[in-house]
Amino acid sequence: MYLEIVTPDKKIFAGEIELIKLPGSKGSFEILENHAPLISTLEDGPVKVIDKAGQVHNFQISKGVVECLDNNIVVLIESNK
């Protein structure tokens, strides 16, 4: 899966990943490879990303949205705290 995490100012992360865990408006959820198409709003909270090498990346975000389609994930957030 390919992930991009973007704020209005800059791109925070871009690369191939195994998993992302996000703070959804109705609770946290994970996206794995071949996930069904999805658009969701996000709340303030932690984002956990595990890349293809198995390295864990943690981000603290402000509200935003996520779109998942054909193993491409775009996370648009207000800011990275």
Descriptors:
81 residues, mainly beta, ATP Synthase, domain 1, eight-stranded mixed beta sheet, 68% strand, globular
Q: Strand share of the residues?
A: over 45%
The counted number of beta strands is 8
The general outline is globular
State the helical fraction: under 10%
Contiguous helical run count: 0
Rg is 11 Å
Q: Provide the low-confidence segments as ranges.
A: none
Order of helices and strands: EEEEEEEE
Q: Mean pLDDT score, rounded? A: 95
Structural class: mainly beta
- The total tally of domains equals 1
Largest sheet: 8 strands, mixed
CATH H-level name... which superfamily?
Answer: F0F1 ATP synthase delta/epsilon subunit, N-terminal
Note the gap between the termini. Answer: 25 Å
How does this model look, in words?
- It is a single chain.
- Strands 1, 2, 3, 4, 5, 6, 7 and 8 form an eight-stranded mixed beta sheet that branches.
- This protein is mainly β.
- It has one domain: ATP Synthase, domain 1.
- The protein is 0% helix and 68% strand.
- The N and C termini lie far apart (25 Å).
- Strand 5 (45-51) and strand 6 (56-61) form a beta hairpin.
- It is globular and about 25 Å long.
- The protein contains no helices and eight strands.
